[in-house]
Amino acid sequence: MMDEIKNTKVSINVVPITDNDKQVVMNSLKQYFFRDEPLCASLGLMEEKESVVQLENFCADLLQSGVSFMAVSAETGEMVGASLNTTICRDNEIKQFGDENNDKSSKFNDIMVLLDKAGRDVDVFGHYPNINRIMELKIITVNEAYRGQGVCKALINKSKELALELGYQMIYVECSSHFTAKAVERFGFQCIYSLSYSDYVNKQNDVVFKTQPPHKYFKIHVLLL
After folding, report:
1. Which 3 state secondary structure label does DSSP give 136?
2. CB atoms < 10 A from the CB of 31, how many?
3. pTM of full prediction above 0.85
4. What is the pLDDT of residues 100-145, one digit of tens each?
5. How far are the Cα atoms of 81, 128, 177 from residue 37, in angstroms, in the given order?
6. H-helix segments, 10-143
7. Which of 68, 97, 187, 191 makes an SS bond possible with 112, Cβ 3.0 to 4.6 Å?
8. Within 13 A of 22's CA, how many CA atoms are on the CB side?
9. Beta strand pairing status for 12-16 and 170-175?
10. What percent of the chain has pLDDT over 90?
């Protein structure tokens, strides 16, 4: 059945995620994103209960922003993917999630430390002085059976439509996955940051994320609107 789906272009509708949808979205994230996302997979995050709870709470907070979308099969009504989006404004201090000095670091915290470092390195508002409002596509996930069927493209398209409607000046995407980076590049996103996982080490000089090929780099892409 999975092979049949992958070989057939699926018909989907992309709709806003409402309060009634949040549990379905969370269940899908736990089934696919928590397992397959390259950083989570490399750390074995699913094996650490504390980190799973932290990631669940992180995703739940993203859903509160009210600018996220899910892709739904037109035939079955099944949710087949989602884009968890949030907004960043120049006037609001960007929240730092990770604590690199935490001796009892969780796997989730290890990921947040990387994201915080990348955000500081990029300094998006410093590099783009005329940009004040940004939509960030924080998590893009597609159910395994529906990958390669244009679901990611549809989610990005819908997010872009909303960003334009709301007057955002940029879309910002952190790409831990090779496939996500390739997808946004096809949309004309520009890569403004790239960090090789093999070069990212902790205080003991150990590589933190031993990701599986083809996931070699953490990248940040932006699209000016």
Report:
1. strand
2. 13
3. yes
4. 555 556 999 999 999 999 999 999 999 999 999 999 999 999 999 9
5. 14, 29, 7
6. 22-28, 34-36, 38-43, 49-63, 107-122, 124-127
7. 97
8. 14
9. unpaired
10. 88
